[in-house]
């Protein structure tokens, strides 16, 4: 019984560290463009274009969205285009 308690504790510590380290990775994937818009989802011709981008941005509470030509990502904004 003495070996089970440390191994279970070790398992929980590893699980906690892993979950916290992946949180920072997910937050780092969001890119802010030069004008302050939030750009995160890649625009894919024929699959995820302007309509899908704008729709997802409006669902998330932004006024609209556009596919940035330089980064090839969907950028959500609250200003008029």
UniProtKB/TrEMBL annotation:
Residues in Defensin-like domain copies: 37-78
Record flagged with keyword ATP-binding: no
Alphabetical UniProt keywords: Antimicrobial, Disulfide bond, Fungicide, Plant defense, Signal
InterPro entries named among the record's database cross-references: Defensin-like_dom
Keyword Signal on entry: yes
Single GO biological process annotation from the record: defense response to fungus
Signal peptide positions on this chain: 1-27
Entry similarity comment: Belongs to the DEFL family.
Protein name: Defensin-like domain-containing protein
Organism: Brassica carinata
């Amino acid at each position: 019984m003495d070996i089970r308690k440390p191994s279970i504790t070790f398992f929980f510590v590893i699980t906690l560290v892993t979950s916290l380290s992946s949180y920072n990775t997910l937050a780092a994937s969001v890119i802010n463009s030069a004008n302050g818009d939030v750009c995160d989802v890649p625009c894919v011709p024929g699959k995820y274009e302007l309509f899908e981008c704008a729709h997802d941005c409006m669902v998330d509470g932004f006024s609209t969205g556009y596919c940035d030509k330089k980064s090839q990502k969907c950028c959500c904004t609250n200003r008029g285009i």
